[in-house]
């Protein structure tokens, strides 16, 4: 009797367990599938959930409370050597070595020493972990990030200015130092990019279109923003994947060529930092302009994108009048936003530009002889001319 009553109970119990096990397995499977297919980002356009993700990790020691002499870090993105090292050497001669530091990203293996540079300030200042850079591709922003990372290692570095190998200073060291140190804001050229098709919708939701920005690659950052750039582990991978330069037309590739020509023609270095800072809701902490002047050749039509080249200054067109003209500029107009940016640093009116590109050796020679960077007193030169 006992057995016969026990058997059905056991049977019911066993079926119950089977159901529980089955349910658990399907729940697990469901959870796994959800994890796999659910987008990593919430689809709501409110920014707060994104912020958590952008600011996920901080690999770098924070030196917020740094006391001592703050340094201005000069970060050079070079192809190989620094052709204008003689001008920069003279510029740094007039500075206190305790007030600046130098980092160079050059091609891997390239060493700055007596045989490759005319200025001792650059000896051994190349990064040991530099990468091969393809101009206009995401390796360029990776190189920038390596420069910022190296410079962040020194807690004294409080301002960071990114320069190319064809950039020149327009003032002496103390003027540039005081200008940048006085500003608690970064200088990042940043504007809405309404007309061009560089934004790739596949970047969504990591990069929503309303936060997509364009601007000059040549930036000057405060330490906090340099940390945001180096800490970023979310926006950079999205750039790497979806912001690519369109390769030149190559008919021999046939089908592949027409496919490539349809993709968004994106130039990562003209978007990355400005978009990253916009995503981090840091635009209120920026002067939304660059401190590095570029002269654009506007004679070419807008359709002919090859004509939109920076003009290279040579000996002839780097005249004192030209340079004075650049130094007098006190505002910039942003067409896409109908915004006039009156140039300020720490709320005072200042000239917009501290640096300029692109300068040939001849043009840099002329700046040096005219005493733009200090050392050579222009008036004494003029006095001695008959
Ligand atoms: C170096 O910086 C300190 C203060 O930060 C300043 O007193 C000094 O004049 C600077 N030296 C030069 C050469 O700019
Ligand atoms: C640096 O340049 C500024 C502005 O051009 C000038 O007023 C100042 O006297 C210069 N300082 C030195 C040390 O040459
Ligand atoms: C900014 O300007 C204010 C007022 O003119 C001044 O008190 C302050 O010291 C300046 N800040 C820096 C960092 O120079
Ligand atoms: C501007 O571009 C035009 C056409 O591309 C070229 O002929 C001209 O030399 C350029 N001007 C300068 C100053 O580079």
Automatic annotation (TrEMBL):
<protein>
    <submittedName>
        <fullName>Glycosyltransferase BC10-like</fullName>
    </submittedName>
</protein>
<dbReference type="InterPro" id="IPR003406">
    <property type="entry name" value="Glyco_trans_14"/>
</dbReference>
<dbReference type="InterPro" id="IPR044174">
    <property type="entry name" value="BC10-like"/>
</dbReference>
<keyword id="KW-0472">Membrane</keyword>
<keyword id="KW-0812">Transmembrane</keyword>
<keyword id="KW-0328">Glycosyltransferase</keyword>
<dbReference type="GO" id="GO:0016020">
    <property type="term" value="C:membrane"/>
</dbReference>
<keyword id="KW-0325">Glycoprotein</keyword>
<keyword id="KW-1133">Transmembrane helix</keyword>
<dbReference type="GO" id="GO:0016757">
    <property type="term" value="F:glycosyltransferase activity"/>
</dbReference>
<keyword id="KW-0808">Transferase</keyword>
<feature type="transmembrane region" description="Helical">
    <location>
        <begin position="12"/>
        <end position="33"/>
    </location>
</feature>
<dbReference type="Pfam" id="PF02485">
    <property type="entry name" value="Branch"/>
</dbReference>
